[in-house]
């Protein structure tokens, strides 16, 4: 864990909240989630509170069904929209390796890193149900094939982000040269289901490599910068974090769902939401109660993980409590420090900027 920052805190900002009935309790028209104002306000509140990064969930199909069926703006679009409206918080859309062309995925994330001046991250998605893949005319993959696809897309994206060396863009007005072609490289990537010649159409991201977050269930701990782990209680989270580090994870974040005491006690609010729609367990640690009890829970997790991704049940209700009570208490205890304007997400997380794989062998054209 970083001695500089204590726990890193991520906020998942999907729709009106993590609970499928969140739209019923948000206090705003359901269609508001399709407007820029909702995304902007959540990102601004999260940044002002001192969250390290905000994640944007996504899926090829709606996140819920029946009366709770909800649409989404595409995650990369949401992240890009707030990239120039923020200056400190990391931005991490979910992009699925099974339904997004790898070259376009890498380009989109590189563009986000440029737009945010080095604050982009990627939550690796691997949608693999029949309904999800029917959207692109594909069929679910076996476990071994899915893991290969995930590793191939991560490897291809990392190679493409290196396909332009850091100093490939010359912009020499006197000679009219925009770039040094000797520092732009073909990656010649061959995967199990696709090949990529390259190079990327976008210069190397400001961070060198966009920060990659992946669930431990994807079994790619050796390729991700941050592994997301789940468990139904603290002991299970600690065990999952230990397994992730043994598998090669450099950093580990715990997934925690939260329902907090606000104008209404958390338990009664959750019961009312459950009357409308049950909230199935995703295997995550779920905190229902006071802000002080959540702070204590995060203190306990801090011994095992580098960070926590919080999933508020209802953003309009739970995010203000997090911003006004939880994060200040953690900061006062020395367990959290807000990112600073001008820092890249990598520097905030204490991750080194990777050396370009092509730099040592490049041939520069004078």
UniProtKB/TrEMBL annotation:
Pfam families for the chain: Bac_luciferase
Luciferase-like domain location: 23-260
Domain of life: Bacteria
UniProt entry keywords in alphabetical sequence: Flavoprotein, FMN, Monooxygenase, Oxidoreductase
SUPFAM superfamilies, A to Z: Bacterial luciferase-like
Assigned protein family: Belongs to the NtaA/SnaA/DszA monooxygenase family.
Name of the protein this chain belongs to: LLM class flavin-dependent oxidoreductase
Organism: Pseudonocardia yunnanensis
Upper taxonomic lineage: Bacteria, Bacillati, Actinomycetota, Actinomycetes, Pseudonocardiales
């Amino acid at each position: 864990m970083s001695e500089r920052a204590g726990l890193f805190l991520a906020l998942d900002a999907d729709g009106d909240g993590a609970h499928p009935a969140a739209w019923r309790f948000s206090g705003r028209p359901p269609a508001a989630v399709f407007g820029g104002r909702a995304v902007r306000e959540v990102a601004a509140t999260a940044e002002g509170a001192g969250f390290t990064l905000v994640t944007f969930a996504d899926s090829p199909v709606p996140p819920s069904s029946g009366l709770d069926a909800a649409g989404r703006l595409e995650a990369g679009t949401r992240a890009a929209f707030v990239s120039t409206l923020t200056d400190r918080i990391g931005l991490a859309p979910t992009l699925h390796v099974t339904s997004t062309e790898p070259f376009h995925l890498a380009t989109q994330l590189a563009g986000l890193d440029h737009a945010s001046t080095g604050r982009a991250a990627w939550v690796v998605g691997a949608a693999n149900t029949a309904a999800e893949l029917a959207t692109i005319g594909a069929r679910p993959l076996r476990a071994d094939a899915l893991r290969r696809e995930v590793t191939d897309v991560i490897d291809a994206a990392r190679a493409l982000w290196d396909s332009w060396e850091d100093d490939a863009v010359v912009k020499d007005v006197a000679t009219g040269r925009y770039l040094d072609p000797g520092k732009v490289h073909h990656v010649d990537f061959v995967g199990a289901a696709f090949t990529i010649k390259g190079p990327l159409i976008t210069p190397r991201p400001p961070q060198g490599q966009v920060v990659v977050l992946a669930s431990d269930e994807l079994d790619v701990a050796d390729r991700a910068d941050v592994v997301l782990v789940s468990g139904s209680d603290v002991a299970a989270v600690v065990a999952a974090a230990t397994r992730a580090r043994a598998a090669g994870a450099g950093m580990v974040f715990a997934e925690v769902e939260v329902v907090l005491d606000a104008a209404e006690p958390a338990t009664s609010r959750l019961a009312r939401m459950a009357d409308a729609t049950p909230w199935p367990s995703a295997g995550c640690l779920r905190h229902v109660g006071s802000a002080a009890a959540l702070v204590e829970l995060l203190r306990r997790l801090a011994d095992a993980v580098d960070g926590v991704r919080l999933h508020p049940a209802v953003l309009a209700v739970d995010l203000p409590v997090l911003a006004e009570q939880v994060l200040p208490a953690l900061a006062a205890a020395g367990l959290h420090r807000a990112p600073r304007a001008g820092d890249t997400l990598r520097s905030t997380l204490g991750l080194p900027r990777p050396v370009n794989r092509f730099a040592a062998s490049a041939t520069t054209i004078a």
